[in-house]
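Hi P.,

Sorry for the delay on this. The queue was packed all week, but I finally got your sequence through. Input first:
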Amino acid sequence: MTGVGHAADAPGFEVLTMGRVSVDVYPQQIGVGLEDVTTFGKYLGGSPTNVAVAAAIHGRRSAVITRTGADPFGRFIHQALRGFGVDDRFVASVPAMPTPVTFCEIFPPDHFPLYFYRFPTAPDLQIAAGELDLGAVEAADVFWVTVTGLCQEPSRSATMAALEARGSGGITVLDLDYRPMFWSSPDEAHAAVTAALDHVTIAVGNLEECAVAVGESEPAAAAGALLSAGVELAVVKQGAAGVLGARSGESVTVAPMQVEVVNGLGAGDAFGGALCHGLLAGWSTERLLRFANAAGAVVAGRLACADAMPTTAELDVLLEGAAS
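Then the structure:
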């Protein structure tokens, strides 16, 4: 593998993410099955990669740890990351393995099937513990990983090594991000998540993901179970019922912002990047969730993921309008 940077020549990153990357190939026709689509757009994708992009657009020094193929799509990923202001020094290539592509179908308001071309494995699942710059991981103000990174070796061991290196320093976020096609069973995912929760300060997930992680799908019970597992902040997304944020002695529910949905696939990543920004700013739980909710709403109303991430100024205007 080539192209891995080191913390000795790197500034301290405010947001460092680790895991999945892809080229998203999205149809330009909405409400049409892939068999009938005639034109597509090419975009940077992959949940933790999108979170790093969103954080960078909010002005945060961001980087991502991931792997691509040694191919033109891999070169595109480097170009796109740099274009968004995300440091790509920890993005290496894996010879003889193609960069993943992901297709989707767009049927608003709530049906967006995804088709992952990354089986039986993908470059970003080939990250090995011995390749990690643990100094950069430890130094990051916010370190963000996803459950997908736990689904296969050597990525699982690398992810756990990174989490263990964090110790008690900084903010460590686990995106529960459960994708059934990457696991042999929910029980396998549950065991991996249980081990990871011992090392994180914040967990973020929807109701299905919480059920896999802690066996609870009722929002308050899920948040309580995550707190009992050791996290300091549990963020439970409830769809049309809004989002719940719970800390010890505090529980806040924020209603969703109304939006005409175009493509809901990038909303969670926009939420994540905005969440990182608000955490670094030291905002209250309510302000944090309102800002993140607004970011998710904006991206749900747009076609792409990374390319659709809103600026801080856009969200401030949107929230001011909602409050008036």
